[in-house]
Write a structure and sequence with these properties.
Helix content is about 75%, strand content about 0%. By secondary structure, the protein is mostly helical. It has one domain. The protein is globular and about 65 Å long. It starts with 7 loop residues before the first helix and ends in a 5-residue tail after the last helix.
Length: about 325
Amino acid sequence: MLLGHFPPIIYGFFIVLGTMITLSSSTFFGMWMGIEINLMSFIPIILNNESNEKSSEATVKYFLIQAFASAVMIFGAFYFYYYGGSLNSKSPNILVTLALCMKLGMAPFHFWFPKVMEGLNWVGALLLLTWQKIAPLVMLSLFFHHNVLIFMALSSAMIGAISGIIEPSSRKILAFSSISHMGWITATMCFSTIWMNYFFLYCLTSIILCMSFWFLNVNYFVQLASMPESEARFIVFVNLLSLGGLPPLMGFVPKYAVFMVLSENTFVLAILIFSSLITLYFYVRMCMHSFSLYKTIASLAGHVLKRKPLKHFYILSIITSISILGIVPLSLIHF
């Protein structure tokens, strides 16, 4: 393939460049151009995933969705500038808001996101969960329509929480968790600027959990039940519960900050809290099932399963300690 002539660092450079252009641009067209550079640089990274048969399908879906969203976004801008800004700006803002939410994979435009995640390796999945969301979120914070964004934020929080209940795939669990967290971030965006703090801590917890899945080679949660290393299950589920926002783990810190900001918006806060409780419910249920299933497998085998040395144990221990002890230093931060 022609893509093989270029090392991944080249595409990584243009991914960073596209995001930097969006963040530093003072015009809408410059921001749009940065997002397009970012899009075209991310596609080869998906195609270079030779170990996953779904990478080609994921590439086509990702390109079509992002291209359509970009077309809607630039159409909204042209519509506004064509009339010289004399018309009410709500219509263009609605179009731009919908397009950026589609790029972020928010409900009800979320159907492509879990399917694309299935076709990625862990490096690509981590980029899609974190870095690829920076530019659309920054643009959304500048051009959003308040009522539309609130509706989509609450829809994302609930749909992301409910859809992950029956998913056995670790990549899809991360995808639906991302959809739910985008609901929290965009709902906070409508009332405060602490969404940037929330997004930073979300990226940190996602990096820790993706590294845990990557190093332990866990693609489905059933695989954890057959692992005789109890440390592996402990590491995965501590980081998973941190991503869900269970106190006193690090993932609870940004949600506590959102509680303080949205204390007067009880309706929005109640829906967000309810969605978070649903997420924690099936995370805890997966933890209990995996530990009990391991005991069942061991008893049927008639002996204790043979333990193997855990790869990257020290790295996994360090990143897990960040999830456990992260609330101590981060609690001193004034959001």
